[in-house]
Structure formats: C-alpha cells, structure tokens
Amino acid sequence: MFKRSLIAATVVAAALAGCEQSAAPQQSSAPDVDFQKHLITQLVQAKPGDVIEIPEGHYELTRGLSLNGNGVTIRGAGMDKTVLSFKNQIQGAEGLLVKNADNFILEDLALEDAKGDALKINEGENVIVRRVRTEWTNGPDVNNGAYGIYPVQTTNVLIEDNVAIAASDAGIYVGQSHNIIVRGNRAEYNVAGIEIENSIGADVYNNTAKHNTGGILVFNMPNLPQPGHGTRVYDNIIHENNTENFAPEGTAVSFVPAGSGVMIVSNDQVEVFSNDIKDNDTSNILVSSYFTANDTATNNSVTEAFDQFPESIYIYGNTFTGGGSSPDHLELKALRIAEFGLNGSLPDILWDGVVNPEKLVDGELPEQYRLCIDNEDASIINVDAGNGFANISTDITPHQCQLAKLDPIKIAIAE
Amino acid sequence: MYTKIVSTALVISALALAGCEQSVNHFDRDNTPATLSSWGILDSNGTTLAIHVDSTPYDLNSPLFTDYAHKLRTLYLPEGTAAVVKGDRIEFPVGSIITKTFYYPKGASDGEVVKTNDSYLIDGSSLNLADVQLIETRLLVKQADGWQALPYVWNADQSDATLEIAGDVQAKTLVDGNNKQRFAYVVPDANQCGGCHAPDHTSASIMPIGPKPSNLNGEFSYASGLENQLTYWFNKGLLQETIEPTQTLAIYEDGARDQLDLRARSYLDANCAHCHNPKGAADTSGLMLHIEETDMRAIGLCKPPVAAGRGAGSRPFSLFASHPDKSIMVYRMQSDDPGEMMPEIGRSLQHKEGVALIADWIGNMDPVCE
Questions:
Q1: Complex ipTM
Q2: Residues in chain A within 8 Å Cβ distance of B169
Q3: B317, B304 in Cβ contact below 8 A?
C-alpha cells in the first residue's frame, strides 16, 4: 500500500535528471594530499586517550577514513569551520568508518558529500557524536550516500546537537543498538530524518525534523540478529516532511510515503508524546506492519521468527496541526478523496489495522498490545489492509486506552 | 613424535642452506622497520625478487580479487615451531610472518599493467623483475599480543619497499587484449587492513584469512615438483598434525572441475565472508556468505536489503533466483562506485569473471522469489 508507484518513481527520476542537466559544472578543488596522509597516519597511530584535533579548514579527501580501537576523540573547530569533503572520494564506503571503538567521541566538524555513508560506527560502547554536520551539499538526490550519522550495534550512544542533511536513506540512523539518546539534532531534506531501527531502548527528543520524506521513523526490519522495542519519541518538532521520496528503489525507506511525520513499522512499545507535528501531507503519524509497508517482500523474504506486527504503541499529548491533505501513493490519494472528499484530509493517525491473529482474545486484541491513543481530539483511520481494505474505519473507540509508560533511558555519558 | 623428527631434520637442512643467506628478523610491534628488506623474508636486487629459503610460498584455491593483481604469498615460522589446526583455522605460532606481494605483468609503457592468467613464479621461489612490476607487500606478523598488519609499498627501482601505514594510491592502466582501462590502485591504510583481516568484528583481532585448510587443499608447483600444499606443509614441519579438510574450496581457475554451486560459494567465501559471517562486520546486514552457511535466505535468497542504500541498485533481493539482473549481489559486484560496490575496499575494477560466475549461479536457480 505504501509502496511508491512506478509512475511516481519515473517522474522523480526525470525531475532529477533535469536538475543535473541544468546544474552548473562543479568546480573540483585539488585534493589535500598531505593533510590526508597526516590525518590517516594519526588515525592509524591513535591510542586510547588520544585527542585528534583537526583545525579549521575545508579539506578535500580522496580516501575513506578509518579508525579502530578504543578511547579516541576526534574534534574539529566547529561544524561549519572544519569541513572534510569527500566529493572526490575514490575509495571507502564511508567518509569516516569507526570500527569497534568504545568510549569514542566525534565532535565539531562536518563530513560532506561522502560517496556512501558519511559516518558509520560499527560496534562500540559509550559513543558520542555531537555538533557534527553530515551533508550532501547538492540537496536531495538518489545518488547521495545512504546515511549521515550511522551507529550500528552500539551500546550507550548519545547523538546530540548534530545537523544531518540530504541523505538518500536516513540522516540519523541508529541500528541494532542498545540504550540510545538522540536529542537536539536537526534533520532536513533526508528521506528519513531520524530512524531508530531494530534497537532496544531509545529516547528521541528535542529534535527538529523538517522537509524530509519521513520525519522520525521507528522500524523493525526482518532477517536481523536483533528485533527492537522500547522507543520514546517526544518533545520534537516534526514539520512539513513532504520531500519526494528520493531513496533508491528496493531500500527499506523507499516505501515511506512522502508526507510522513512519524512512521512506526513492526516495532513494539513505542511512545509518541508531546511532539509538535504539523503539515505532513500524507499523515502526521503512520503505524504499519511490514508487509503492508513493503509489498515487494514475499514470505520467502522473511525469517519465520520475524514479528511484523507493531504492538503496544502509545500516542498521547501531541499537538497535531494540518497534515493528510495531499498524501503520496495512488492508493492513499484515492483513499483521501473517497473517505473525506475533494477538500478533505487524512486523519492525524493512519493505521494499517493489521494485528497478530494469534494474540486475539474473543476476536479482540488485548489492550496491552494495542495502538492506544490518548490525545485530545486526534483522529485516526484504520484502513484494514489485512482484509483488502474491506472495513475502513475512523472509530477511535478501540484505541481509547492507556499503556504503562516506558522508563527514561539513562546513559552515564549523557548526564 | 614423527612430526618432531621431520621438523628437526628440516630445520638442520634449512640452516645449512641458509648459511649464505640473510637471516629472517623479528621486530616488535612498536619497532617495525621502515624497509621490507629488514625482515629478511623477501630479497630484491632490482632484477630478481627471491623469497627466503626458510619461508614457504603458497597459493589459495579461491583467492580474493584485487584488481587483477597477481599475488606471491609466503609463510615463515620461527625455527622449531609448528602451526596447530583447529577446525578450518590454522593457528600460527608467535613469530610467524606471512607476506603477500601484489604484482602485475608489465605493459608496454610505464603505468601499464597486463591482465593475464600466466604464472610468473620461477621454481616456486622467485620473480623476474624484467617481466613483472612489484606494487606492494603486506605483512602479517604474529606478535606476542596478536597479529600486526603492515603495508609496504615498492619503490620505483624495485630494490626495496617502504612501510606506508597511511597506504598509497597509484594511477595504473590495465591492458586486457585491445582494451585499456585506467584505474587507481589503492594500497589500504593500516586501519583498513582490519576491514578484512578482523573476521570476528567484536574481538577486532587481526588474523590471516586466506591460509585455512579448506582453501589450501590444492597443489602447488614447488621447486621439488607438484605437491599438495597441506601435505607439503606437514612434511616440512610447518603443521603439527596432518589435516584431512572436511571441506575444500573450489579451485577458482578450473571452472570445469567443480560444481557451479561449490565454485560460487567458494568465491563468496573468499571474497565476502571475512565480513559477511555471523561475527563479522557485516553481520549487521543479516547476509551470511561463509562456506559453512546452509540457510539460503541468509545467503541472500529472496532477501530484501537492510542498509544497502544506493548499493541496492533499485533491486529487491540480494539473490533474485534465476534473475541475476535483478539481484543486488550482482549489482554491487559490478559497481566500481565506492558508495555502492562490494567488497567495500580492495578493488577499483570490476572482477568480470567473478561477476559472470555469480550471475551464472543465480541464473541457474529455481525461480522462487516471484
């Protein structure tokens, strides 16, 4: 249902191609060979406790940077002063790859125009990324790298006061991690602004997600070692995430409809509260199971162990303004007009209505697993995707329930 | 008992032979020499590269692809020591030195290198530098606290190589028949060595990945004649015990001899499994390409991408059975864009023959992903 139509994709491709033709040729500056060799040497020789300071300047690099080992801090002079540009990169799937580094800190610099991910941190405990800017300077483009800030399989991770712009997947993407705080960041013009995926225990607050395809995503994907649960999304500004989906087709976020404020797919125990959510043209909040969201996947695509049902979702105390007035995807466009008229809008919350049949008691899902909404006059639509959209409903009564609230995430390095 | 006697005899004869040779030297982790020659393993006079008499050249059934470079691999174990086999791993004693020298047949002009399948190793022990150009030699040294990876880059007159922990980039042109293709040959930096040589990403320990029983179980053309490498290593005292590998990787060159499935899986094991294994850096993807994996979905069958980004190439599954042109794996192997390609490092060129093998394998699968 949420899958981009082929027509839409073609239009995007044509539009992008047009932009490319009209763009002035980029002046490519000369690589800073000596700087690069010096920096790589520092990274190779880094020992626990070392602080690698990168002075103010705009540096053109040709190779991906790589750091192994614990206890290293990399610090620039500011996210607009120390700029590492990978526009001319010929090697490396990331701008900076940090491998298995405990007690790692990256702060006060920018990583621009990486060919792949800007920053990937693969395993590590006590990881801080703050006041870092990751950006593709040409704006949204299918050829941009996938992720801006990408910690994966990390524990106790603080992502704070960063800026992430124009990633072709997620600006800030925390995957398969434990104990996460994502706060004070600004994510703009990415496909996904901020995404928490297959992670356990995340607090996402005080962020601004504007002009992405989807503002803040909480996903569980199949075939991974760890399913996620327990994310709180609160006190965020989530406005106008209506940028056309420019993700490469087939990727996990390619099926996110443009105009999604918050999107929850297959994840459990997710709280969305006290956010300011405004003018997201498909819907301010979407809640979906995996197979509704990604209709190219088949049963052969997913391990039997995968739980595709989003359960124990609790939405309360948010401010909803506008939204739903111009949804993406043909089915949703048709749905809006059919249910709400030419000038109508989809409700604040869009739910695919798919529940785990094995958990039904007397035909009903027990309250503890439900999508509970305690949000003044918020509206909902259940599209009943599991039954071919047979019983579309806007009745909020089944959702008038309350769930036990999750505990705040405590991380010593974030105190 | 038998092992000891053989190895003692060999050590004595080796010592006798080594009389006129430079000795192999060991250096601690913090005192590694700036020049390759200091180790004494490889000796170049600018016209011939010779390997030390106490080291053993070897080859792999299914090697890692590196921009069509040829590779001379050697193993040196300290006097009186032998390696221990644990499953499909060989544990080498402290003081072991493994080298891998990357070289190309020379083209007509400077910077031109030639794509060939010819062998240039003379008597299993030397290279004629009139025929080939040496690019780099990577050392793996087993220190008391674990393996250390050291990249050395050969100088212009080919007389020695210099330690370059920050790696290097060299502009080359690959000559393939009438085709010429410019490419950047990239020597990885010392941290990037761990991108492949730390197959257990959590421990992050550097280790050799090529020399394992399943990939060594083939013949090598020694000065003394053709012999199985594992037998030769045992007879030379390099192994404490004889090995009967439970699995043997396909010989990459010899397509006709092994089953297509084994050839493809062997190729993936050698080229991908150092990351794509249950403990590897790419366990985040759920794609497992080690030869022991039996779950076809984990090997990629009908498996959607997780975090491939544009590396997915707008294709739905890693292996779209019977549709290589819709399979992400083929797309990423064909790409030479650092943001898309697999492996992530270690090549700038597409391995056309490797792509053909994997495409053939996928094309022969039953169409089960529709």
A1: 0.87
A2: 62-63, 90-91
A3: yes
The stretch B131-140 carries a mean pLDDT of 97
DSSP codes, B98-147: EEEEEEEEB-SSTTEEE-------BTTTEEETTTEEEEEEEEEEEETTEE
DSSP-assigned states of every residue in B8-53: HHHHHHHHHHHTTSPPP----GGG--SBGGGGSSEEE-SSEEEE-T
A320: β partners: A277
Q: Where are the beta strands (DSSP E) in A100-146?
A: 104-112, 117-135
Handedness of CA B175, B179, B180, B181 (dihedral sign): negative
Cis bond upstream, residue B343 (ω within 30): yes
Query: Which pLDDT band holds residue B254 (cuts at 50, 70, 90)?
Result: low
Quick one: tokens of A246?
């420019």
Residue A340 lies in a domain: yes
| Number of domains comprising chain A | 1
Domain that holds residue A386: 6-24+136-409
CA B99 to chain centroid, in Å, comes to 10
Contact B311 A116 (CB under 8 A): yes
Give pLDDT, residue A153.
96
Work out the pLDDT band at A18, boundaries 50, 70, 90: very low
* A392-406: average pLDDT: 96
Q: Shortest CA distance to A179 belongs to which of A219, A117, A124?
A: A124
Tell me which chain A residues have a C-beta less than 8 angstroms from the C-beta of B339.
Answer: 93, 114-116, 145-146
pLDDT, tens digit, for every residue of B111-121?
999 999 998 99
The secondary element (H helix, E strand) that includes residue A44 is helix A33-45
Q: What is the DSSP string of B223-285?
A: TTEEEEHHHHHHHTTSBSS----S--PPPTT-TTTS-HHHHHHHHHHHHHTTTSSTTSGGGGG
DSSP secondary structure string for all residues of A217-266: EEE--SSSS---EEEEEES-EEE---PPP-SPTTSGGGGSPTTEEEEEES
Q: Note the Cα B134 to chain centre separation in Å.
A: 16
Which residues face A28 on adjacent strands?
none
What is the rounded CA–CA span in Å between residue A276 and residue A235? Answer: 7
pLDDT at res. B256: 57
Q: Is some CB atom of chain B closer than 8 A to the CB atom of A70? A: no
Task: Chain B: give the shortest CA distance to residue A373, in Å.
Answer: 30
pLDDT at B255: 57
Nearest-CB residue to A122 (from B284, B298, B315): B284
Distance CA A255, CA A4 (A): 6
User: Is the Cβ pair A150, B307 closer than 8 Å?
Assistant: yes
Contact A92, A63 (CB under 8 A): yes
Res A12 pLDDT > 50: no
Comparing CB atoms, the residue among B192, B339, B369 nearest residue A300 is: B369
| pLDDT over threshold 90, residue A169 | yes
Tokens 């053993």 belong to which residue? B56
pLDDT reported for residue B285: 92
User: How far, CA to CA in Å, does B311 sit from each of A251, B98, B299?
Assistant: 9, 33, 17
pLDDT confidence bin for B19, thresholds 50/70/90: very low
Instruction: Find the CB nearest A115 among B198, B339, B370.
Output: B339
Torsion, Cα B206 B209 B213 B214, to 10 degrees, reads 150
Residues A260-291: pLDDT tens digits? 999 999 999 999 999 999 999 999 999 999 98
Cβ contact (<8 Å) for B314 and A89? Answer: no
Beta strand B132-143 with B146-154: parallel, antiparallel or unpaired? Answer: antiparallel
CA distances B11 to A230, B82, B142, Å, are: 62, 12, 20
What residues are paired with A112 via a beta bridge? A85, A135
Q: Which among A100, A143, A300 has CB closest to B201?
A: A100
Of A98, A153, A175, which is closest to residue A129 (Cα–Cα)?
A98
Residue B12 confidence (pLDDT): 38
